[in-house]
Write a structure and sequence with these properties.
heterodimer; A: alpha/beta; four-stranded antiparallel sheet; 41% helix; 16% strand; B: alpha+beta; seven-stranded antiparallel sheet; 2 helices; globular
């Protein structure tokens, strides 16, 4: 598929605007919109426990969505728990493990708040100790640091992101997970920024949990998944109890279905249409990743754009210098302009839509970059073009070099 | 939250959004429901006369300081407010009104 053909699948793309905020939310392609609409038009019913034909039709589409989402990461359908987003997936693990005082959790300074605050809260409320691994100025986790930290006292869980949402740094996730496994430590990988950009195989990754969001991989908002090893999912204490998961209830007791694991962990009516769209997005993404051309071109475009921004006087590009360690995201700042003012100007004056601030990564911004005010973040996807990149670089060049009349 | 203001005698509805921030102060953006057409040089001169500090413009964007808040105002009416204390939308809305309803801010 050519880039033009691919872009034609996205009805929200607008001429004259460069959408560079895909790390926050990817645009939604027509096949996903159609799948969601078809659910509401053809089998607009609730799933599970309903035996009428419309309910069964909806349940079948939801089951197929689960299969597609599982297949995207080379997992099994019963290893998938549908959630609203990666934040909820991680929260499910944080709240579901039976922690004991003295348990130790390991995480890194490069994390999104959603993979940081749950562990901080556990350390504050449950007597769990938390160790935070430093990262390099480029945002990289050193596997040697992981090994040393585990050797100094072991840990129950290591939680880290495969790709930094703030800097685009790709971590050596399989190597880190292997070190953790050797030390008897479970791993949770935040795949929110990795799953959308390159093939992910949970078996090769070697992790125990993988969390990611549907809305960052061409799916609708309100969807996401937690993949987990089945025996671990069966042991998680459900976040909620209520309809859908219950086997029997007496006046003061109840029991829940624990197999497949998602029965107990997905409670209440889900966003059925959204999850069906998520499944369609998973298949859509799997085909693009399998073909490989558009992802490769996107990656090359990001590398060229980062290099072009680095050439502009007064502009600093954060994150990895080498293209092989960067995915999806370019964070930068312009001397003399706050990130919010720069981002507003890029939108208002140059039609470049991107994000500014600390990107929910304040420890990274404060301690690694020394910039609590954050950065401007341009994030690309497979529909991003040379024109988008040029609009960005020319806009940044103009901002960096502009003269401002003092009144 | 919505924040109604009066600009040059005209009622304008702004949408006030909280931006990424940290610490004791807040950063906000306010976006008008319909684009305005502000003469930023004229606005800048009048706001300076009304007490704004460090007033600078490139014609499309006006930057200045107002009561300790760093303000960036665009000709279509978008406004970014940084370092608002206290970090509350109501405080940001007050700054918004003070800037846009000052004698200098006319469409």
């Amino acid at each position: 598929m050519t880039k033009s053909e691919f872009r034609a699948l996205f009805p929200s793309l607008r001429p004259g605007l460069a959408y560079l905020d895909s790390a926050a939310k990817t645009l939604t392609p027509a096949p996903v919109l159609a799948a969601m609409s078809r659910y509401y038009r053809e089998c607009d019913s609730n799933v599970e426990r309903g035996l009428h034909r419309s309910s069964q039709a909806a349940a079948l589409r939801l089951a197929e969505a689960r299969e597609r989402v599982a297949a995207l990461v080379h997992g099994a359908p019963e290893e998938i728990v549908f959630v609203r987003n990666a934040t909820e997936a991680i929260g499910l693990v944080a709240a579901g493990i039976a922690w004991k005082p003295g348990d130790r959790i390991l995480t890194t300074l490069a994390e999104h708040h959603s993979n940081y605050l749950p562990w901080v809260r556990l350390s504050q409320e449950r007597g769990v100790s938390l160790s935070v691994l430093r990262v390099s100025p480029e945002g990289g986790v050193d596997p040697a640091d992981v090994r040393a930290s585990l050797a100094s006292g072991g840990a129950r869980l290591l939680a880290f992101s495969h790709v930094s949402n703030a800097l685009g740094t790709v971590q050596p996730a399989a190597e880190i997970a292997a070190i953790a496994r050797q030390a008897g430590c479970l791993t949770l990988v935040d795949g929110a920024q990795s799953v959308p950009h390159f093939p992910t195989d949970v078996n090769q990754l070697g992790c125990d949990f993988l969390a990611w969001s549907g809305h960052k991989m061409f799916g609708p908002t309100g969807t996401g998944a937690l993949w987990g090893r089945r025996e671990l999912l069966e042991e998680l204490r459900p976040l909620h109890v209520g309809g859908g998961a219950t086997k029997d209830v007496d006046r003061m007791t109840f029991s829940v279905y624990r197999t497949p694991p998602y029965h107990a962990l997905e409670v209440g009516t889900p966003d059925i249409g959204g999850l069906i769209g998520f499944g369609e997005a998973a298949q859509f993404l799997a085909e693009i990743l399998g073909e490989g051309i558009l992802p490769r071109r996107c990656h090359e475009l990001i590398g060229r754009t980062a290099a072009a921004l680095r050439q502009i006087p007064g502009v600093t590009v954060a994150g990895p210098v080498g293209d092989e360690r960067r995915s999806g995201v370019i964070s930068f700042w312009v001397d003399g302009l706050s990130p919010h003012a720069a981002a507003a100007a890029l939108d208002e004056q140059y039609g470049v839509l991107l994000r500014s601030g600390h990107h929910c990564a304040l420890p990274l911004m404060k301690e690694t970059l020394g910039r609590p005010e954050g950065t401007v973040r341009a994030s690309f996807s497979f529909y991003s073009t040379e024109e988008d990149a040029m609009r960005l670089t020319e806009g940044v060049r103009a901002l960096a070099g502009e003269a401002r009349e003092i009144l | 939250m919505k924040a109604p203001v009066t600009v040059s005698g005209n009622a304008v509805t702004y949408l006030l959004t909280t931006l990424c921030n940290h610490g004791e102060y807040g950063d906000y953006q306010a976006f008008p429901a319909s684009p305005l057409a502000l003469d930023l040089i004229a606005v800048g001169r009048r706001l300076k006369a009304a007490g704004a500090g460090s007033v600078r413009t490139n014609g499309q964007r006006l930057a200045f300081e107002w009561s300790g808040v760093a303000v960036t105002l665009f000709s279509a009416g978008r406004i970014v407010l940084e370092h608002v204390v206290p970090d509350q939308q109501a405080a940001a809305a007050e700054i918004l009104k003070a800037v846009l309803e000052s004698p200098g801010a006319e469409i």
